[in-house]
Amino acid sequence: MPPAQDEPREPSRPRIAENPEDIAAREPFTVEADIEIPPPAVVRRTWLAHTFESFRTRDFTLFWSGALVSNTGTWMQNAALVIVVYALSPKQASLYAGIVQFATGAPVFFLAIPAGAIADRFDRRKLLIGVQIVLLGQAIALGALYATGVFSPTRAVTSLAIICGLTLVAGTFSAFMMPAFQSLLPDLVERKALMNAIALNSAQFQSSRMLGPMVVSAMILAGTGIAPVFYVNAVSFLFVIAALVAVRPQQAFNPATMHPEQNGPGSSEGTLARLGAGISYARDNRAIGMLIVSTALLTIFGFPYMTLLAAITDLNVGGSVAHVSRTVAIMLALNGFGALLGALGVASLPSSTPRYRVIPYTLLIFAAFVIGFALMHAEWSMGVFSVLAGAALMATNSLVTTSIQAAAPGHLRGRVMALFVMSFVGIMPFSALIFGPLGQAIGPARAVIGAGVVLLAWGLLLAARPGWLRPAQEVAAE
């Protein structure tokens, strides 16, 4: 009802846009008023609210918390396996560790594309729950076999074969988990918060990468032994299973609601066409294709500094085996800390910031820090470069992930993200196979420097050709 004529009217107030970053939605005098610097307390609250805005969503908070506990357990198990494999044969530790790493990562490379197609055709939430149950069983099996003395230096080859068999099972099911995990995340938040949610998820992963080995070290110092580590990992899967049961993905992204011609059981799309749909989309969408290529190059030439970390530390710092091992552990922790900072930095970026414009520069910074790390000969300087390299690496990875997930259509998201998973996780074992012998032949520092130079060249090319990463939506809008 309109106010009575004799009632005093409230003075008109400038309209404030719902999105503070949407300058175009404001009236001119409102924009001018923003020139006034707000109080520091307001700035702090605004920064915190923006950086952690996705936690306002119930489903994302549940999913994030469950994944943090589960991933911490997984990194605990990874650290424990390193100790178990080393104990089987200290003289063959590098070879054995490489075999186990290959058995874990190779299935991701070979199965990522069909796994992405499955993630697009079935309920991603139920698929993830099934995979968690299998991984829970694998953790229990490792704990039981270790506790009963099956893993023994007197049967090193047999023990290694059993470990490889179990890690091969885990790697196979992880190949089906990763595309479903990546493609489910956008279903849990509003689209405007997607960039923030993906960056916070990266921060969760990096936090677990730090926490897992720290918990294992504490358990060993407390005298609990290795077997309980595997059992703790098994229990950790219950948390992510409970979170998956509780979340309710948005119907707009639910495969069950998609048009049958796109994705349903009655689709006339052939099996091969379905499997290749993600590849076709990346081929036709130049920005997506270049992001996938950039991820593959980042994995091949960016991760050798981690693969050869122990050798570089031994070469540049030297000392006893115990001293080198302790230094390597510190470098890994510092790298994880830097990665956490990088993920939080991406989470704090305004949603209006074009991610594709930032990627070439974070890639260049990462390449420079990797080269610097290989040239350092003091522990403190290696530690500084380890933090900086970890931050730049995770910033680049988070920016690429958010760009791909934001651009991929819902009915193809699983298959497109499968390409990302294959180019990121699946190529890692092959990078190790390439740079391990190369580091042995020309020296680990020279191998890492050479890899860094390749990344520098690619980053410069992307910076010179910004249109390569520009989303198709922006090009079409012009």
Structural notes for this entry:
By secondary structure, the protein is mainly alpha-helical. It has two domains: 54-257, Growth Hormone, Chain: A (Up-down Bundle), CATH 1.20.1250; 275-478, Growth Hormone, Chain: A (Up-down Bundle), CATH 1.20.1250.20. The protein is 75% helix and 0% strand. It has helices spanning 28-33, 40-51, 58-88, 93-121, 124-147, 156-184, 194-221, 227-246, 260-263, 271-284, 286-302, 304-307, 309-316, 321-347, 355-375, 379-407, 413-426, 428-442, 444-464, 472-477. Helix 11 (286-302) runs parallel beside helix 17 (413-426). The longest helix has 31 residues, at 58-88. The chain is globular. The model is unreliable at 3-45 and 251-269 (pLDDT under 50).
In short, what is this structure?
The chain is an all-alpha fold and 478 residues long.
Topology readout:
Blueprint lengths: L27 H6 L6 H12 L6 H31 L4 H29 L2 H24 L8 H29 L9 H28 L5 H20 L13 H4 L7 H14 L1 H17 L1 H4 L1 H8 L4 H27 L7 H21 L3 H29 L5 H14 L1 H15 L1 H21 L7 H6 L1
Key traits:
478 residues; Growth Hormone, Chain: A; globular
Cα separation of the termini? 44 Å
- How large, in whole angstroms, is the Cα Rg? 24 Å
Q: What is the H/E string?
A: HHHHHHHHHHHHHHHHHHHH
Query: CATH fold name of the largest domain, please?
Result: Growth Hormone, Chain: A
Q: Please tell me the total number of domains.
A: 2
Shape, principal axes of CA atoms: globular
Low-confidence stretches: 3-45, 251-269
Report the CATH superfamily of the largest domain.
Answer: MFS general substrate transporter like domains
State mean pLDDT (0 to 100 scale).
Answer: 77
CATH class of the largest domain: Mainly Alpha
The fraction of residues assigned to DSSP E strands is under 5%
Number of helices: 20
Share of residues in helices = over 70%
The class by helix and strand makeup works out as: mainly alpha
In the CATH classification, which architecture of the largest domain applies? Up-down Bundle
